[in-house]
Amino acid sequence: MGDTIFALSSGAPPAAIAIVRVSGKGAAPALKALAGSLPEPRRTVLRALRDGEGELLDRALVIWFPGPDTATGEDLVELHCHGGRAVVRAVEDALAKLPGLRRAEAGEFTRRAFENGRIDLAEADGLADLLAAETELQRRAAQVAFGGATSRMVEGWRDDVLALSALIEAALDFSDEDDVSELPEGFTQRLEALGGALEEALARPPAERLRQGVRVVLAGPPNSGKSSLFNALARDGVAIVSDIPGTTRDVIERPVAFSGVPFVLVDTAGIREAASDAVEGEGIGRAREQMDRADIVLWLGPEGNGPPHALEIQSMTDTGAPGKKTPDYLVSSVTGLGLGELEAGLVERAGLLLPKPGEAALADRQRRLIHYARVELEVAEEECDLLIVGEALRRARIAFDRLLGRASTEEMLDALFGRFCIGK
Fold first, then answer.
1. Residue 37 · residue 87 · CB < 8 Å
2. What DSSP string runs through 10-75?
């Protein structure tokens, strides 16, 4: 981290204001070079920014944050400039010409915050989700993770493992040489309680479902109204609607949000026994695959012929066609009948599939490490040899350390921080 980095940290210009951040040991000299002198720490002042030839670049608000108590844990400068493209380009070009400064890579500011102990990996995961959040539910869940809820939960487990390890070490130190198999009093109960806490966390809905949206697959035979209902729910004419059977040949996806809850609507080819050609046959195969992947299936075909737990949808109610005896929802894509009720029903069902508000949602990487720790705790539960029990507890602790970033590979860090934009 010897280099000093800079980047535009606000939205792409043109904009009213553009914020350029500089982080590293060269931040203070850079501010002196552009603004003439350092202002008082953490005080916003108006300064004229000039390049190396003395030419005026902009009149900007500047803030000087001496490290280590900063967002990145390093000396940090913020330049609040006018947000025109030419202004931002001129300021960045002037910074690039200063010795020891370079443009930041994706996620490099956040990575430095992690490496300097300002945040851990679980909080970094939450920050990445917060930046990518598009719905209110995603924002609230990301705030929980970025606020440290996941970290505190894992830290608690780690402390429990350390306490259990200390009991094992004490038993080994004071046991007779001929008998090192007796477990400390209360050890088994505490170990089982910890294992139960891990299982409870693993049973929660995964964060990926919240990130990507609940998958709602519309399925049924040709001309059952799937594409019309898809367009009505998506509020867009993305799917081709036709009376010709087999019009939809491929899978069409569209992300939407109902009441702040993220969904992915999936329109599929009509399912029938005999396809008209190889292309339609491939589409039918993909439709069946999508039903297998679905979180919710809206079945528009004959009643009872859909997959288990599918919602029975009676579509095209405006046509007067014979309907289902006990449909879950009656809808018309033409008149809008029942669409509001269907959307509300999807939101209600999604509430059972998504993390609860205020609850820490685990990402796939985190779930794998917690599962690994749970397996090691099971080894400790089944063993009587104190040496093997102690080793299993050590491996469980290492899993928690990796989750928090205390023992991580460069490849994993590159992948995680690569999710961020330049300037964050």
1. no
2. SPSSSEEEEEEEEESTTHHHHHHHHHSS---TT--EEEEEE-TT--EEEEEEEEEE-SSSSSSSS-
Count the alpha carbons within 13 Å of 232 in the hemisphere toward its beta carbon: 21
Query: What are the two backbone dihedrals, phi and then psi, of residue 118, each rounded to the nearest 5 degrees?
Result: -80, -30
Encode pLDDT of 118-151 as tens digits. Answer: 999 899 988 888 888 888 888 888 899 889 999 9
> pLDDT tier at 181 (50, 70, 90 boundaries)?
low
pLDDT per residue as tens digits for the range 339-376? 999 999 999 999 899 888 777 788 899 999 999 999 99
Say if CB 225 and CB 333 are below 8 A apart.
Answer: yes
Integer Cα distance of 247 and 250 in angstroms: 9
Residues ≥6 apart with Cβ < 8 Å to 389: 168, 183, 379, 380, 383
C-alpha 19/C-alpha 14 separation (Å) is: 12
pTM of the model as a whole: 0.73
Question: Radius of gyration of the chain from Cα atoms?
Answer: 29
In contact, 22 and 16? CB cutoff 8 Å: no
Bridge partners, residue 101, by sequence: 4
Enclosing H/E stretch for 100: none
Six token digits for residue 173: 């130190």
H/E stretch holding 193 reads helix 187-202
Q: pLDDT, tens digit, for every residue of 292-338?
A: 999 999 999 899 998 999 999 998 777 766 678 899 999 988 888 99
What are the structural domains of the chain?
Answer: 4-115 (3.30.1360.120), 149-204+360-405 (1.20.120.430), 216-353 (3.40.50.300)
| CA 167 – CA 190 distance, rounded (Å) | 11
